[in-house]
Automatic annotation (TrEMBL):
InterPro entries: Glyco_trans_1, Glyco_trans_4-like_N, Glycosyltransferase_grp1. This is Glycosyl transferase, group 1, putative. It comes from the Bacteria. It comes from Gloeomargarita lithophora Alchichica-D10. GO terms for molecular function: glycosyltransferase activity. It holds the Pfam family Glyco_transf_4. Keywords: Transferase. The keyword Transferase applies. Residues 225-378 form the Glycosyl transferase family domain. The keyword Transferase applies. Residues 13-214 form the Glycosyltransferase subfamily 4-like N-terminal domain.
């Protein structure tokens, strides 16, 4: 079986890490899996780069972002993708039975997708961009269900704004486009099924996989000693590379939650992915900075007594599965993709959406429990999210498409 994956990055960012783990799992299972990416960080010879000169690449980025100049207050994560490239020609150099598309912003424009291959196509969503007029997370806006326009993330007061124009481009290009869509959670699957853009497609729910040998339980005293964290404290962990940058990640809700917890010298907040914790003034907090490798992350998760995921929108919740694989229970809000991961009162706590007081109550409840939550968390990951399980589900889907 020959699989070609398309992704903007090979290992940089959560979406890239998820696709790369799948790619590695497929290789271990004997599949001829290859990736074509725009930007490569690894030394993996099975990862191929779509090459452009530095000048062409820079001009392409400038041109692609040019329409946003008319919206000076636009959000950071808004993608139009209207400048074509030669990726469709590059794909012809590969022999594949299945084309598996992942996070492709900057790699392919919407108009290319229905035309790039006659082979079966699978598309894994790690955010909401494909069903919106340009944003990657709607942040509670439902205008993507009705052609967008008046876009709050563009700070737009016009119906025929850039978001509406991008939405219409997708609608025109994808009216007969029918890839099999994979979403990592039931929450995102429901969003896609309701979409006027891609609701006609077959949608499968397959979670992101995890190597449970890499993400494993490390004895808490050892993990804390290595990270120089106090042994006697109750450690509350939160983090991620975009926690502070993206509103949907809920940093403001986390700060409210932290301030609501009753004073207790026995607790310590530990934040990873950033060097500062604005909003935590007066609270015991330690910032670990960026943790970029699996070993460092596994140490952080294992050192914690609980992980808090304060997201308003989460298409899956990779940090939740990583923490649970390390035997750490998770507290999060109900109503996001994390709901597929956390079982209320069994391996964590699902707070009422998006109530900081209930999130604080959940943290307190988990900290009062024994070791059973952590054991349950590890068992859930082994059963549902282990990479071998997820790879097998992909293989079954691929084979069914080849046989069709």
């Amino acid at each position: 079986m020959n699989i070609l994956h398309l992704n903007t990055y090979d290992t940089s960012g959560g979406a890239a890490r998820a696709s790369y783990r799948l790619h590695q799992g497929l290789l271990k299972s004997g599949v001829n899996s290859q990736q074509l990416v725009l930007r490569k960080s690894s030394q993996d010879p099975t990862i191929h780069v779509y090459s452009e000169s530095r000048l062409v690449k820079r001009l392409r980025v400038i041109a692609d972002q040019w329409p946003l100049n008319f919206y000076p207050h636009h959000s950071r994560a808004f993608s139009t993708h209207w400048v074509p490239n030669l990726v469709p020609q590059k794909i012809k150099n590969f022999n594949f039975d299945i084309l598996h598309i992942h996070w492709i912003n900057g790699l392919l424009i919407p108009e290319f997708l229905p035309k790039i291959t006659s082979q079966p196509m699978v598309w894994t969503f790690q955010d909401m961009w494909a069903i919106t007029g340009g944003c990657h997370y709607t942040q509670g806006c439902d205008l993507f269900m009705n052609q967008c326009g008046y876009c709050p993330q563009l700070d737009s007061s016009r119906q025929n704004d850039l978001s509406h124009q991008v939405w219409q481009r997708k609608k025109k290009a994808w009216c007969n486009f029918q890839p099999v869509i994979i979403t990592p959670s039931s929450w995102l699957a429901n969003q896609v099924k309701s979409s006027p853009l891609l609701g006609h497609c077959d949608v499968k729910i397959i979670p992101n996989g995890l190597d449970t040998d890499r993400y494993r339980v490390i004895p808490k005293p050892m993990a804390r000693q290595i990270l120089q964290l106090p042994q006697e404290k109750k450690v509350i962990l939160a983090g991620g590379v975009s926690l502070l940058k993206e509103p949907h990640k809920g940093w403001d809700l986390l700060c409210e939650t932290a301030q609501m917890l009753p004073p207790d010298d026995g607790r310590l907040w530990v934040i990873f992915g950033q060097q500062q914790a604005p909003g935590f003034e007066g609270l015991p907090v330690r910032c670990l900075g960026s943790l970029t490798d699996d070993v460092a992350l596994a140490l952080a998760y294992s050192a914690a007594d609980v992980l808090v995921v304060p997201s308003r929108q989460e298409t899956f919740g990779q940090v939740a599965t990583e923490a649970m694989a390390c035997g750490t229970p998770v507290v999060a809000f109900a109503g996001t993709g994390v709901q597929d991961i956390v079982d209320h009162y069994t391996n964590g706590y699902l707070a009422q959406a998006f109530d900081p007081a209930d999130l604080a109550a959940g943290i307190g409840w988990v900290l009062r429990q024994g070791l059973e939550l952590g054991k349950n968390a590890r068992q859930k990951v082994e059963r549902a999210f282990d990479l071998t399980v997820v790879v097998q589900r992909h293989l079954e889907l691929y084979q069914s498409l080849i046989n069709a």
